[in-house]
Amino acid sequence: MTDQVTAREYFIQGITRDGKKFRPSDWAERLCGVMSCFGRSSAAGPHAHMQYSPYVRPMQVGDVKCVVVDERLRQIEPMAFDFVLNFARDNDLQLTEACTIPDPA
């Protein structure tokens, strides 16, 4: 069995540091939509459709909307990585450094 290195991720929670729910309610989808160009697309032209980047994706944790940012984005596009984390800081959102644990096979 080989050891796998789990990528570190940042969880931006839709809760401000003082406990208020962040608005608008679709903030996570909007932020991920802006970052959607930093991903892979199998279709082009008129049959293409938007896909969230594998490096910046929305997630619901309980009743809290979150955006999960993969640290590998820093290597691909440092300015995009800084943009997303600065969005969290500028809006006083809770930011947690962690990693997603894959489901057992």
Describe, in plain words, how this protein is organized in 3D.
This is PhnO. It comes from Pandoraea terrae. The structure is a single chain. The chain is α+β, with helices and mostly antiparallel strands. It has a single domain (9-38, 51-98), classed as Alpha-Beta Plaits. It is built from 3 helices and 4 strands. The protein has helices spanning 27-34, 73-76, 78-90; strands at 9-16, 56-61, 64-70, 93-98. Strands 2-3-1-4 form a 4-stranded antiparallel sheet, covered by helices on one side. β2 (56-61) and β3 form a beta hairpin. The longest helix is centred in the last third of the chain and has 13 residues, at 78-90. The protein is globular. 19% of the residues are buried. The mean pLDDT is 85.
Features of this protein?
105 residues, alpha+beta, Alpha-Beta Plaits
Structural class: alpha+beta
Q: What pattern of helices and strands is seen along the backbone?
A: EHEEHHE
**Oligomeric state of the chains in view:** single chain
Main beta sheet strand tally, sense and closure: 4 strands, antiparallel
Low-confidence blocks of residues: none
Number of strands: 4
Strand order of the largest sheet: 2-3-1-4
Report the CATH C-level class.
Alpha Beta
**How much β-strand is present in the residues?**
25-35%
Overall tally of domains: 1
CATH homologous superfamily, by name? Uncharacterised protein PF12112 family, DUF3579
| Rg calculated over all Cα atoms | 15 Å
**What is the residue-averaged pLDDT?**
85
Q: Please estimate the helix content.
A: 10-25%
